[in-house]
Write a structure and sequence with these properties.
Blueprint (H helix, E strand, L loop, with lengths): L1 H24 L5 H11 L5 E2 L2 E5 L4 H6 L4 E9 L3 E10 L1 H5 L3 H7 L3 E2 L4 E5 L8 E10 L5 E10 L10 H4 L7 E9 L11 H13 L8
Antiparallel strand pairs: 1-2, 2-3, 3-4, 4-9, 5-7, 6-7, 7-8, 8-9
Length: 216
């Protein structure tokens, strides 16, 4: 009897693990929709209000190794507010939910100098709030670099910054977007309220949302 129960229990664990793995890897997903999401992502306009964008190159091999289906990298400049860098990714929820800045930037030689801070903002003309995590990083050297990074995810039409994105987006469909906005700081203690990234996001998000393929 005990052996039978054990075998049944093991079987349930294997089945459950298989379902979770299938959901995380999108084994039963819709590649046509994902391809459409990749194509639409690249159509985001280079001109957003008074912000003018310029394309940057991405390493396709590196993206493929991280199982990221699509990515755009751009620098947007404003005549009065300076510039920000945009990185936008799309793909299956499992790979897109991981690799947050506290891992990526530290891995690239930066030092984390602040705790995560949750930012809530209202996009231009919007009726809903978007939430973003933000952190500051530094890299010392002959020319020190100071960065503030903002990031968030979107699966169903709302930009969210959950504590556990892998769990939050596990059952939210087959497509997930992640957005980074990076601003180079003149000094490490530059106040958040003066960061032009917030103004850029308020202009960006309503336009960006027109180019998303969302899960039902």
């Amino acid at each position: 009897m005990f052996r039978t129960v054990s075998l049944v229990g093991a079987g349930l664990i294997l089945v459950t693990s298989g379902i979770v793995h299938g959901l995380r890897t999108d084994r039963w997903g819709h590649p046509v929709e994902l391809n459409q999401a990749v194509d639409l992502l690249s159509e985001l306009p280079l001109t957003l209000g008074d912000w003018q964008g310029q394309e940057s190159q991405t390493d396709r091999q590196e993206l493929a190794s991280m199982d990221i289906a699509g990515c755009i990298a751009r620098t947007y400049r404003h005549p009065d507010k300076g510039e920000v860098m945009l990185l936008a990714f799309c793909g299956r929820p499992g790979p897109i939910a991981v690799h947050t800045p506290d891992q990526c930037y530290v891995g690239a030689g930066f030092e984390l100098v602040s705790e995560e801070e949750l930012l809530t903002l209202r996009p231009q003309g919007g009726t809903w709030d978007a939430t973003f995590w933000t952190m500051r990083f530094k890299k010392e050297g002959v020319s020190p670099e100071y960065l503030r990074v903002f990031w968030s995810w979107n699966a169903t039409g709302k930009w969210q910054a959950p504590q556990s994105p892998r769990i939050t987006f596990l059952l939210k469909g087959s497509i997930l977007y992640k957005l980074y906005i990076v601003h180079r700081l003149a000094r490490l203690d530059a106040p958040l309220k003066e960061d032009p990234s917030q103004d850029f996001l308020k202009v960006l998000l309503p336009e960006f949302d027109k180019y998303l393929v969302l899960n039902p």
